[in-house]
Amino acid sequence: MKQKKQSSLACILGYAGGYRNLTLLGCILSALSAVLGLIPYVCVWLAARDVLETWPALTGVSGSARWGWTAVWTAVISIALYFAALMSTHIAAFRTARNIRRAAMAHVLKLPLGFFTGSQSGRLRKLIDDNAGLTEDLLAHKLPDLAGTIVTPVAAVLMLFLFDWKMGLLCLLTMVLALLSMCLMMGGKNAGFFHRYQKEIERMSGEAVEYVRGIPVVKMFQQTVYSFKAFYAAIRDYSNLASQYAMSCRVGQTCFLTFINGAFALLIPAALLHASGGDVRTVLVNFIFYALFAPACGQMINRIMYMSEAVMEADEAVGRLDEILNQKPMENTGAQKRPANAAVSFDHVTFTYPGSDRPALSDVSFSVRPGQVTALVGPSGGGKTTAASLIPRFWDADSGTVSIGGVNVREIKTEDLMNQISFVFQDTRLFKESLLDNIRAARPDASRDEALSAAHAAQCDDILEKLPQGLDTVVGAKGVYLSGGEQQRIALARAILKDAPIVVLDEATAFADPENEHQIQKAFEALIRNKTVLMIAHRLSTVQDADHIIVLNGGKIAEQGSHESLLAQHGIYAAMWKDYQRSARWKVGRTDPKSGKGEKTV
Fold first, then answer.
1. Helix (H/G/I), strand (E/B), else coil: 229
2. Backbone dihedral region for residue 42 (phi beyond 0: left; psi -120 to 50: alpha; all else: beta)
3. What is the 3-state secondary structure (H, E, C) of 166-211?
4. Average pLDDT over the chain, rounded to an integer
5. How far is CA 194 from the centre of its chain?
6. pTM of the model
7. Where are the beta strands (DSSP E) in 301-418?
8. Of 343, 451, 459, which is closest to residue 405 (Cα–Cα)?
9. Number of Cβ atoms within 10 Å of the Cβ of 364
10. In terms of DSSP bridges, do strands 548-553 and 556-561 run parallel, antiparallel, or are they unpaired?
11. Cβ atoms 71, 187 nearer than 8 A
């Protein structure tokens, strides 16, 4: 049997915890405030009746003062109750939004690391922070207003027919027409507007972040117009969507505003016709009441409209948050075990990225012995980085087993698994903190001397010497900026300090100049000594001394062996080595004007 989907409001209140009762209290107080807010209108009618009954003598109208004070005190009490209601719902709303953010972040921390490599940071921030914030307005303002909106129409309809049913019917007619106009404006093709609106906002936010990040490259190659295309397209689509919605609401909005503010157009002729054949004083008293009460009815309809908008926002917020909460977290199977050693093994592993119909790895099997350096090489898109990412569980294999020390990585506690592996990627990330804190990110409890020793082993002495505060120099905003190769060496210092038994190197020298590459290679010697190493590289000179080389092509193992044995096979690796050697010898030369050929530079 299909389970009924939980409403957005029930889902949001599920995060409120003990503050749910505070939300309920706020709604009750708001309903009481709304009922008390109607009493002053009755008091005005009673006071006007007393005055007109004795007009022009104005004797015996002392009771009017009593009605006036009653109106004042009920209005004051109504305002006080509404203030108490909003205080209660605001406290509950802030705590609920906090709980939603906590739940989302707690779930995010359980997701595979690969989830973050494929998500735009701007979009992810909006999904968690902004959508949690959307629930605050619903709980803090719109929900207590809804309680008043539900109670007020019932009392208002009774009051409309209490004094003069004909004038009351006219006021009710304007309310019904206003509601129909609102349904016309928000229904039909406009019903899904808010969902489309939020998608365009997310797209624009993500494109803005990506564009700002790429500004240095854009300016370097003078590609401003072309690089702006994606961001501009997002802005244009958002603008078109908003404009189309606004234009489609013209008729509905015009009718809505006309009806909620047009009660006077019906009440005045009705009062004149009614007075011509009856008691003028009674008609005048009733007209005064309905003339004052009609705008209050319009305000009530406005609240209903804003409430429906808040509900759409809440539906969208819950739906967007579910995009994260429905992501499958990493799961540990069986009893959690500790690896016996640092050996890495792939046993018939197949893996396909989410949303892809083609396996990135297909039936891959190989082993890396403790203390051995294994290199993964091959054409781009062959599956090298994918294979390396399965070891720390950036993703989990669809079939087959990835194991460390004879234990399936799914059966290793996440903390223990992370302690087993050090990573050095081509895209190094340094925090906007001191170099000391950046290095100690691998081991927060490490001493300053240990961090300094790791920096020395990573060939960072020249970096520390030129910086104003050495190891305490702040990197990034309001600090210093390091070159790609210098950042890579700091990352190596971090990995050396961690001293994990398994090291994964993914294109660690990709952005290094020759001088930095030489120092990085020396740092590698300190990092990989007596470690199990899996190295990914396109520069084949960095892997020719590896104990074992695996050539991945199209997600499958095409060849494997030592450098010499692979050259002897005259296969993919041999062709790659030949191309690498040719590119290494190539130099920029001048063209011979006579022959039209470049100068010989080999």
1. helix
2. alpha
3. HHHHHHHHHHHHHHHHHHHHHCHHHCCHHHHHHHHHHHHHHHHHHH
4. 76
5. 17
6. 0.60
7. 344-351, 361-368, 373-377, 399-404, 407-408
8. 343
9. 25
10. antiparallel
11. no
